[in-house]
Amino acid sequence: MQARPRGGVSGARGPQLRRGWLALAIAAGCSGSVDSRPPNSTAVPEATVIAAVSVSESTVIAAEPVSGPETTAIAATREQVAELPAPALPVAPPPDDRTPRLRDACVAGDTITIAAVGDLLLHEELQIQAYAAPDNFFAVWGGVRDLLAQADLSYANLEGTTAAGLDRKGQAVRDPGRVFDRRVYSSYPRFNYHPSLLDDLVASGFDVVSTANNHALDREPAGVDATIAALDRVKLAHTGTRARGTQGPWHALTRARGITVAWLACAEHTNQIPDPEGQVLRCYEPEGALEQQVRALIAEPSIDAVIVTPHWGKEYKPEPARAQRELAARLAAAGATAVIGSHPHVLQPWEVLPGAAGRDTLVIYSLGNFASHQPELPRRSSLLLYLGLTRPPGQKARVHGVRYVPLHVRQTGLQFFVEAVDRVGGPADSRALTVAMFGEAAVLAPDAPLATRPACP
Hints:
The protein is α/β, with parallel strands linked by helices. The protein folds into two domains: 10-83, no CATH class; 110-438, Metallo-dependent phosphatases (Purple Acid Phosphatase, chain A, domain 2). The chain is built from 14 helices and 14 strands. The protein has helices spanning 10-30, 46-53, 57-62, 70-83, 124-132, 138-141, 145-149, 196-203, 220-233, 289-299, 322-334, 377-380, 421-424, 428-438; strands at 110-120, 153-158, 208-210, 237-239, 252-256, 259-267, 305-311, 338-340, 347-354, 360-367, 369-371, 381-391, 398-412, 415-420. Strands 1, 2, 3, 4, 11, 12, 13 and 14 form an eight-stranded mixed beta sheet that branches. A six-stranded mixed beta sheet has the order 5-6-7-8-10-9, sandwiched between helices. Helix 1 (10-30) packs across helix 2 (46-53) and helix 1 runs antiparallel to helix 4.
């Protein structure tokens, strides 16, 4: 699936900066000096800036010289511009003892940035809030939409179904619309959301979701079919489940900046709900099958990276179980570029494992809850992960860096809001919990330029 274009994100930022810097240099040169201040400096007359930025960089350089004393100044300025270095791109700070150290941090090539969040586990109160709001689920996470949209690709775990007109047994009934009626649209122990949720995910910048988790069958096999149909309707890529009677791929493909990423999701179990049609990809069964899929995907010449998103581990445990670590090592050896886990509903740490062909594999065992009503501090504290990938010429992509924004679900009465902790000034205990696990150096301030690569020689 071709990633949807992002308006005003990093893809357009570089050329705009270069044109702005050039305009300033030319304007300053015409006045006899070069201003070393950044673009938008008030040292340049406003009319001069408007005239300069209203044309392209190539047009400015190729303009016919005018007769008169300005000709010599313009020619000299062009020589100065040619010698000026491009404005420095933002860089990530040096790693601390909790930041993954990646051997390919400074490798050259095409790059993209991926944003990833944890579980969309929309309990009763969040659904009631969203269905009553004119902006639907933006009422819950609207405060972080800009942080999602600034990445080239964004991912989340969709924990539950979006099956209109199906009750808890998967039987067709009258659909109530955007109403939490506890029959069609319900919460624990069987989650089902109004399909308008998917429109909000797309509008928030999400490009791909995992549908393989312990709530994948919460509306029985018919619910899996309905959820896939609803995802296809809004053109939101999905991985980990498939409709009855189909033998299509388990993985999804996204493409951004010419880099193709394969996403592969799996679930450890489905809450003992039978899966008679084999619609949910399992992480551990049959043994070795998931790893074989990773090997096949990374061997495809058209695929640059493989990201596995397992739904695994023990709920509410801040450390990964041995089975998680062992599977992560096997996935890395099989060629996974990154492994991004979910299901524990709390954060679990990250690490770098040796991967295939000398590449590193970044593993984060759990991203916790993105949006939920689980009031305990570890369950309402999470993060937005930024993963930087570089594809060297003629090679597979590899991880060059990671950053994160601490997130928190604030409750005010019966209203819930996903917030960037450093944007709203707290809560301090939530930030401390997250930073203790992932370190201070990798924290990205919400309003800072997005940078995942450290300073390189």
